[in-house]
Design brief:
With 59 residues, this protein is α+β, with helices and mostly antiparallel strands. The chain has helices at 14-23, 42-55, and strands at 31-35, 38-41. The chain has one domain (14-55). 41% of the residues lie in helices and 15% in strands. A two-stranded antiparallel ribbon has the order 1-2.
């Protein structure tokens, strides 16, 4: 039996959708991005994006 889809209460912007998934207990650990042999979960990608934004003085 297929599981119910996860629903996210977020704007349709990419940043809002990633943030909503990164904060969701079931979605945070799911793979979001793969490049060659490296992968990022929603939470890892969000955390790295926030870290880089602060490093670059954005936000």
């Amino acid at each position: 039996m297929p599981s119910e889809p996860l629903l996210f209460d977020a704007d349709m912007s990419l940043s809002s959708q990633i943030r909503a998934r990164a904060e969701h207990p079931e979605a945070a650990g799911k793979m979001f991005l793969r490049e060659h042999d490296r992968t990022w979960t929603y939470k890892e990608f969000r955390d790295e994006s926030v870290r880089m934004a602060h490093f670059c003085g954005v936000g």
